[in-house]
Design a protein that fits this description.
The protein folds into 5 domains: 104 residues, Ubiquitin-like (UB roll) (Roll); 93 residues, Ubiquitin-like (UB roll) (Roll); 137 residues, Domain of unknown function (DUF4445) (Nucleotidyltransferase, domain 5, 2-Layer Sandwich), CATH 3.30.420.480; 188 residues, no CATH class; 118 residues, no CATH class. It contains 18 helices and 29 strands. By secondary structure, it is α/β, with parallel strands linked by helices. It starts with 9 loop residues before the first strand and ends in a 25-residue tail after the last helix. It holds the Pfam family RACo_linker.
Length: 684
């Protein structure tokens, strides 16, 4: 229980990041509703519908500045017990209509309890891949047993594979040996086998066996395990076709939105690493099940998985305490690629003998996801100097050409994902994702996820009535800040002007600073969606980290300019080059030399799934990449501070200024709101 006699308990909801103080005894559902948290409930809080399930977390959360005691919520009650006995409930979950706040607490709202389903914008990009997978199907005719030539069925299967397919030695574990004899006899000595034989040599592994000709195919999963989202692609291992792409939130968000917060949680809370490992493995199984359902296949036909992730996710997925990654020299337990049984990571939703390949990590803060981006985008084969930025909660940055490739990781934080933003939310139906602001009238128009019209177009109101306008996601806040700068609402230092200074009453007083109102839904019980000064600062911190990382690599390369920029990840696919450049997220370059690569890490995982030679190639490439450590490089801070300005304090950005006029406005009047700065009229 909270020991502070003055302050009411602090309630922090993840993944939204929304927080507030509430009197002890407040139901969690009530707190969620007052904060605008996306938490479902249809039974009026009577503990009947089960829609409002939440997951409280306990322990020390240094990122949030709270320690959650075991009695932070009220005791399990009879309504919850009755529901658990009748319907069942996952361990650790509570009904938010029944649990009441007793002390500071961190509460996760799982995806199934959210009204607006998360949109994981990491769809598979079209890519021509030479098919040479590690796991293949082989149809063979096996000689029947003969008393005069006593050999086992496995040995005769091995001989048949050698004669008919030129395959050497094979191995099989006990679970498939048990299937071998009945399957051979059911197929009348004609069977189809799935064999795993990768680039490392050694005997082929017998993954599964079917009687006669198996025509159901075999499949693989390519998974990009990110800090915020986990995206997966279900692929046909024969044709390379992507049958389904899906994703979900990484449930570890409740332990900390950024990587170092999760390392800190493991340090501060005994068993915290095991808790996070368990959470992410459950999520991987849930994703596998979802993909199999979406692809309409038997999950037992998923025979292989490739996985890419950053180093902290890498260790937590493997069940390795990430504590060493939280302090210099940032040592990995292993940086090599790994080939394991999928069941070693408790992946039980797929074939029990499926294999798992994890791409190599580059260094302590540059992981297998960066290696996958290098495999997909091939900067080492570029004739010109290319900067590749894979932007998420953590940014992986590559700079190189045929001569040399450099890599670093930069802690951009969760602002690009819509977290730590006052009206921010994850990408879901109802979230504002695109914005334009008229530079003359200062009026905004916007688009909402799931709606194909702009807010000023006929029919928008009718369409948006289904979802409502609920907040602003990462792509929306990035465009909003850039548009505000172009419209003269925001000065180069990142200060929002008053109504008098900007000429629009959409700039409202907000304490000692100002906010810009994008949409006011309060008249209809909806939210006021605005960009606050705090939101601007969060975006400045995130974009400065990205730019500083890129500049460090350019310093190491000895250049002041790059030839082209590739934006990767969910960010890269949804933000225009113009807005990225106006913010100063990336170094100055002609706008037509900035392109999107979509989910490059996921594409790299698919390439590795479908082509064993690519695995050998990326393992070689990783050893040749030069790693630059931002955490200990003195110049990083200098670049970071200069990059706080929008677009930049010292770099002139000539290419940008040729394409986009940036008003020369300054709103720091030395004390105040500016005359008229406290006008409060809000408009929708």
């Amino acid at each position: 229980m909270s020991t502070d006699p003055v302050k009411e308990p602090l309630v922090i909801f993840t993944p939204s990041g929304k927080r507030g103080r509430f009197p002890a005894g407040t139901p969690v559902l009530t707190a969620a509703r007052q904060l605008g948290v996306d938490l479902d409930s249809v039974c009026g809080g009577r503990g009947i519908c089960s829609k409002c399930q939440v997951v409280p977390s306990y322990g020390e959360f240094s990122k949030h500045g709270v320690t959650v005691a075991d009695d932070a919520l009220s005791d399990w009650n009879s309504v919850e017990e009755r529901y658990r006995q009748k319907r069942g409930m996952k361990p650790g979950r509570r009904l938010s209509c029944q649990a009441t706040v007793q002390g500071d607490v961190v509460i996760d709202v799982p995806p199934e309890s959210q009204v607006h389903r998360q949109v994981v914008r990491k769809a598979a990009s079209a890519r021509a891949i030479t098919m040479d997978p590690a796991t293949r199907l082989y149809f063979v005719e096996v000689q029947e047993p003969d008393m005069h030539e006593p050999t086992g069925d496995l040995e005769r299967l091995e001989r048949a594979l050698g004669e008919q397919w030129q395959i050497g030695e094979i191995t099989a574990d006990l679970s498939v040996l048990g299937k071998l004899q009945p399957t051979l006899r059911k197929g009348k000595w004609q069977v189809t086998v799935a064999l795993y034989h990768d680039h490392t040599g050694g005997p082929a592994r017998l993954i599964d066996i079917w009687p006669d000709l198996h025509e159901g195919g075999i499949y693989g999963l390519a998974i990009d395990l990110g800090s915020t989202t986990i995206a997966g692609h279900l692929c046909n291992l024969d044709t390379g076709e992507v049958l389904a792409s899906s994703g979900l939130m990484n449930p570890q968000i409740r332990f900390g939105e950024d990587l170092m917060s999760r390392v800190s949680y493991a340090m501060m809370n005994p068993g915290g690493d095991a808790e996070m490992t368990r959470a992410v493995r459950e999520a991987l199984n849930a994703l596998a099940q979802e993909l199999a359902e979406e692809g309409k296949i038997d999950p037992a036909l998923i025979c292989e998985v490739t996985l890419v992730c950053n180093p902290v996710m890498h260790h937590l997925a493997l069940g390795i305490d990430p504590v060493e990654l939280g302090q210099a020299p940032f040592a990995l337990a292993t940086s090599d690629s790994l080939s394991l049984p999928a069941r070693a990571l408790d992946l039980t939703a797929i074939n029990t003998r499926a294999r798992l390949y994890i791409l190599p990590c580059i260094a302590g803060h540059v992981g297998a996801d960066a290696a996958a981006v290098a495999l997909s985008e091939e900067p080492d084969k570029s004739d010109d100097l290319v900067l590749v930025c894979d932007v998420g909660t953590n940014a992986e940055i590559l700079l190189g050409n045929r001569t040399r490739v450099l890599a670093c990781s930069s802690p951009t934080g969760p602002a690009f994902e819509g977290a730590q933003i006052s009206s921010g939310q994850r990408a879901a139906s109802g979230a504002i994702e695109r914005i334009e602001i008229d530079p003359v009238t200062k009026e905004p128009r916007f688009r909402v996820i799931g709606i194909n019209r702009w807010s000023d177009e006929p029919g928008f109101d009718k369409q948006v009535a289904r979802t409502g306008i609920t907040g602003i996601c990462g792509s929306g806040i990035i465009e909003a800040v850039a548009e505000m700068r172009m419209a003269g609402l925001l000065d180069p230092s990142g200060l929002i002007g008053s109504a008098a200074q900007t000429g629009t009453d959409r700039c409202i007083a907000d304490g000692r600073t100002h906010s810009y109102v994008i949409h006011d839904g309060t008249a209809d019980g909806g939210p006021l969606i605005s960009v606050t000064q705090g939101d601007i600062r969060a975006i400045q911190l995130a974009k400065s980290a990205l730019y500083a990382g890129a500049r460090l690599l350019m310093d190491e390369m000895g250049v002041d300019k790059v030839d082209r920029v590739v934006l990767a990840g969910a960010f890269g696919a949804h933000i225009s080059p113009k807005h990225a450049m106006v913010l100063g997220m990336i170094p100055d370059v002609a706008l037509d030399r900035v392109t999107s690569a979509g989910n490059a890490a996921g594409t790299g995982a698919r390439i590795a799934l479908h082509n064993v030679a690519a695995r050998a190639a990326i393992e070689k490439t990783v050893r040749e990449i030069t790693k630059v450590e931002t955490a200990i490089e003195p110049k990083f801070q200098d670049h970071f501070v200069a990059a706080n300005a929008i677009p930049h304090a010292t770099d002139p950005f000539p290419e940008l200024r040729q394409a986009v006029p940036l008003p020369d406005v300054h709103f720091n009047t030395g004390g105040g709101d500016g005359e008229g700065g406290r006008r409060r009229r809000r408009r929708g």
